[in-house]
Every structure is written in structure tokens, then in C-alpha cells.
Amino acid sequence: MMRRMRSVLVAAWIGSTNLGDELVFASLVHKLRARSVDVTAVSLEPSATERDHAVHAIGHLDAFTLMRRVSSADAVIFGGGGLLQNRTSAFNLPYHLARPVVARVRQRRLAAIGVGVGPLEGAIAERLVRVALSRATPITVRDEASAQRLQRLGLAARTTADLAFGLNPPSRVEADRIVVCLRPWSAERRLLPVGARPPSTDEWFVPTAAEALDETAARTGLPVHFVALQQDRDHALHEEVAGRMRASVSFATPTVHDVLDEIARGAIVISARYHGLVGAALAGRPCVAVAYDPKVGALARDLGDATELLPWSRPGIAALPEAASSVATRVDDAVESRERMRTREHGNDDAIDELLSH
After folding, report:
1. Is pTM beyond 0.70 here?
2. Which of 22, 197, 247, 294 is 20 to 30 A (C-alpha) from 162?
3. Contacts with 65 (C-beta within 8 Å, 6 or more apart), sequence order
């Protein structure tokens, strides 16, 4: 008799326009499908998730269906991605942690795989995480700072890497340009989630970035290729920056299926997007990281000599030409960092096997 397929419900930030989160989910789906697991995703756009990933999907606000699907699943996976933070919105933690709480109430096995933790601002936020994940096992996190934050809350976690490092490296493409992945950002704290408010960027950013990218193009002799990892937010900013530039520019608004190939076209990658840096690493490309958030700095440090780290500030953006020139020849370092991060990411496979073995 054929063994019944196991079933897992995945709760993360799925079905949004953010290709980084879609890459994370794509990697997790690949791992679960290789283990003959039936996947159901909690999604912002269930029809898009079913189309793009060939899984079952339910609406993220459909509480009744969520309770029913959790009850019928063998396990719940929370993650991956930067779910455990309250910087982007006060609603972020309650929204995401409701799913682990449902798993606990329904007495389903729960694991957290490849998550990022922090910033966690305030005792209430810390308590929410502690209570919601108190029965999650195993827990893997994508960087050591996340592991330390959970350890302070009494939660044991293994440090692995972002799930997207489990994807196959992109196909061989000619690296003949500077790939740039920018994003709107303002350090001002807001109540509403990012997706519920219009993009905003510090007023100094566009002219400073345009001048710096012009100088980078002049020094390297390469054109600039803007790649939007979240089209409805990033592409307009890319056009605004490009409109002030003299250098030759081009644009890409890829899908989850071809975004890694677009990033791989860069001989150098400059990114303020976390998964722009992951894409650069997978392609074996040196990169410059613009740290609008601590998670970008943590990843840049893990990538080591293949990456130059700049702050999100006027002087930081102005330093792009020097940083890009500095990393341009570090291709061997980039290849080494890719293999190191992919080896670390295998720890997520071990965690999934542990979850499914019970």
C-alpha cells in the first residue's frame, strides 16, 4: 500500500509583491516536495501563490479555513523570512504570531524554519514571541544575531542561513553591467504595515544615489541595470533615480522565476534589498550592501570579503563608487561565500527532516 502523503501548512509572508519572500517560499516548497509533503500556504493572494508555486493556498484573513487546515495538517512551519520584528509596524508580530498560536491550540507540531529575528522593541513584543514559539521545535534562524535574541527569550535556535540560499544558482549569463536593487525607505516609525502605506524615501536619497551611480558607471565603464525586487514599490524609485543620471541605464521588473537570472547579469551588485544580496551571492558576484536595516548588515558580515557594507545615509550612498571599485575584483571571495552560505543553509533540511520524523 502506498504511504499517505504528509501535509504541512506554511505560515509566512507569502503571495505579496516582494520577490525576496517568494524566493524564500519557493525554496521551502522545493524541500518539502522532495520529501513527498503536500503543502498548503497562508497567502495574501491565494490564486497567485497556487499559480506560481503549484501548492494549495488559503487567504491570510480566512480564520475559519485556517483553523480547519491547521487541524488537518500533520505540522505547521512558521517561516522563513524576517517575520519576528516590530520595526515596520506595531501590527506585524500579532499578525504573524497568530498562526503559531493556532497550531498550539490545535495541538499540531510546529517548527520555525529560516526566520530572522529583530528588531524587537519593548517587553510586550518579546513576550509575544516567547509565548507563541514556546513549543516550536526545531527553530532555525538565518543569522547569529537572531539566535542570540531568541536565546535571551529562553528559546533555543540553530543558526543556519536564509532559505533562499537553498535555491539552485542562476543559469550562466553574461555579467556585463552594474545591477542595482534599491527600495524606498524612511527611518520614521509608522503604525500601519508597509503594504498599507505609500512608499516614502528620505529627500536626500534620489539626487545622492543618482550622482553616486553615475560616478560608479564612469569608473567601471559598465552600464547600470535596475532590478526591482518589489515592482510596485521599487520600480518608481529606480525611474526617479535614473531620470537624474547621465549613464546608460536599463530596467527589469522580473518574476520569482527569473529574478535570480536578472541579478546574475551584474558584474557588481549594489543592493538595499536583502534578497538582492542573496541573489548576488548565489550568482557568485561581489556586491555592495546598503544597510537600511540590521538584517542587511548581518547578511553582509556573513558574506565576508565579497561584500562592502555602507550605511543608509547621505555619506554612505555617496561612497558607492569607492565601495564598488573595492569589491569589483573579489569574484573568488564571492564564490567562496556562496558555497559557505549554501552549506550553512543545509541545516534547514536537517530541521525539516527532524520535524517530519515525528
Report:
1. yes
2. 197
3. 58, 59
